[in-house]
Specification:
- With about 325 residues, the chain is an alpha/beta fold.
- It has 11 helices and 7 strands.
- A 5-stranded parallel beta sheet has the order 5-4-1-6-7.
- The longest helix has about 35 residues.
- The radius of gyration is 24 Å and the shape is elongated.
- The mean pLDDT is about 80.
């Protein structure tokens, strides 16, 4: 058993991150591996500093406490604000729940420092390692989503696909309106001597909607002066994967060799790009702006969706927790 297993694991994870960055620089797995490396190294440093340098350990603990308290209160406050504004939706409740989970970790740490205990300490160490890794990974994801959400449109774009979102009665809601305005801006910003784009409005009718999202979007575009012959409706899709596949099939049937740009909300750009690669649809994705209050909750929801879709971050978490568990087993 190596004397410093956390540092060995950190080196292995970092080496994997470098290789992955060279082979597939745009994959989220690169961020996962580097976050595992940082968390493993931080875990080893914290454990050894606590034993050899109590003052440093105390300073680190206070810094982590203050950071965790700020993050937990921010998530909780944002969740409460959004629930009061939009009602008890699952994604908004999850934001407040995430804040409560962060605060619960801090309470667990405080209890441990009061009670102590070897087995309790192992549990606290594992919980803090998991919380630190997931927090670091979320911050990296949020930064990546922020940057990708500001992608620019390719000049060769011939079709703009607008992904559906919730309706407000029979009209596009605020989120969908911003997507439509972003799509219209793409058309307006084109050079005068280039052909106008064709808009593909993609979205079916949800169980709680009075009409399809595609119909509501088409009416909105017509109200903004877009003629019918430049609007294509795709009104069967119920998720992003179907949005992409059904829209691509409609366009390919009429315009082979087209160049499509997909418009969605900024926080949704990364997952849309990932799904487009998975379903084999070659598109460029750009983002529409989102209100700052809603952005945090929406990004957290996208992060959870990526964890479920990719599973690699969860596998990485299992590997990370295996390090302290294996260390405890060999030491005993």
């Amino acid at each position: 058993m190596p004397e410093y297993p956390e540092y060995v694991a950190a080196v292995v994870f970092a080496a994997g991150g470098v290789v992955n960055a060279l082979l597939a620089p745009h994959r989220f797995s690169t961020a996962v591996l580097f976050c595992l490396a940082v968390t493993s190294a931080g875990l080893g440093f914290a454990v050894r500093s606590a034993a050899a340098h109590p003052t440093i350990a105390t300073a680190l603990a206070v810094s982590a406490l203050l950071l965790g308290l700020a993050v937990g209160l921010l998530l909780l406050a944002d969740g409460v604000l959004l629930v009061r504004r939009y009602g008890p939706q699952a994604a908004l409740l999850a934001t407040g729940g995430a804040g409560c989970a962060v605060l619960a970790v801090l309470v667990l740490d405080a209890v441990f420092h009061t009670v102590g205990g070897e087995m309790f300490g192992a549990l606290v160490l594992a919980v803090n390692a998991a919380a630190g890794y997931l927090t670091l990974l979320f911050l990296v994801f949020a930064g990546y989503a922020f940057v990708r959400g500001r992608s620019t449109t390719l000049p060769e774009t011939t079709h703009v696909v607008v992904l559906g979102a919730g309706l407000d009665g029979d009209r596009p809601g605020p989120l969908l309106t911003r997507r439509l305005e972003r799509a219209l801006a793409i058309d307006v910003d084109r050079a005068p001597d280039t052909p106008r784009v064709v808009f593909v409005v993609s979205g079916g009718q949800g169980d709680d909607e009075v009409r399809s999202e595609a119909d509501a979007m088409a009416d909105y575009l017509r109200g903004r002066g877009v003629p019918d012959d430049r609007i294509v409706r795709e009104d069967r899709s119920v998720n992003t994967g179907q949005n992409l596949r059904f829209s691509a099939a409609l366009v390919e049937a009429t315009t082979p060799g087209h160049h499509a740009t997909v418009v969605t909300s900024g926080f949704h750009v990364y997952r849309t790009s990932l799904l487009a690669r998975r379903v084999g649809v070659p598109v460029h994705v750009v983002g529409a702006p989102t209100s700052p209050a809603y952005w945090l909750a929406a990004t957290l929801r996208e992060f959870a969706a990526i964890l479920w879709l990719d599973r690699l971050p969860l596998i990485g978490l299992s590997l990370l927790l295996a390090v302290p568990v294996a260390t405890a087993v060999f030491e005993h």
